[in-house]
Predict the structure.
Amino acid sequence: MKIIKSTISQVIIIGFLILIIFTDYLNPIKGFLPILWTSIIIWSIIYSINYRKGNATNELRFLTNNDDYNKIYPFVIGTLLSIGGVCTMIFIQEYLIFSSLMTLNGVLLIVSGILFIPNGVISIKDKELISVSGNQKNNIKIETLNEIKLFKNEIIFIDQNQKKYNLEHLNLELSDFSKISDFINQKLDKEIEIKTYYNNT
């Protein structure tokens, strides 16, 4: 049900953008919206390719609870845009440039779905450990990090003052526990106690 609601909201947003472009509303900037969207999708594809090739050496990704939806929606929206773009090119030829971009964006979205990478992230930057899951984001100074607890649905980071930084709504597999532990041990210059609770939720 959550996936259906999210897909409907995406369709409404795209429909609203199409309405803006086909009318005189926001006329000065409306021509740049499809190009901007194309650039964002291309950037995400390049980012996914680089991660899959192992070029993002200071970053580790893992599944969140929302990733089932995130895997599907590029194919749904991409297919709708591709079909809509082709139909627009055939029946409304005066919008040829826009309909071409619409079709291109649909194809690019499908490609981004094929190259999907999980949205849960642990990364190392500027002597900080950064963790992200959806709208949650934690920045923890590595020098203060003392302990990490891994669960199937969350990760808890604990600093030297026993302050906890929770990263929730995860969908970790057993293999993720090893990957996260190896990543932490390899990338940090200090020894961190890592406890795993795979059978606990």
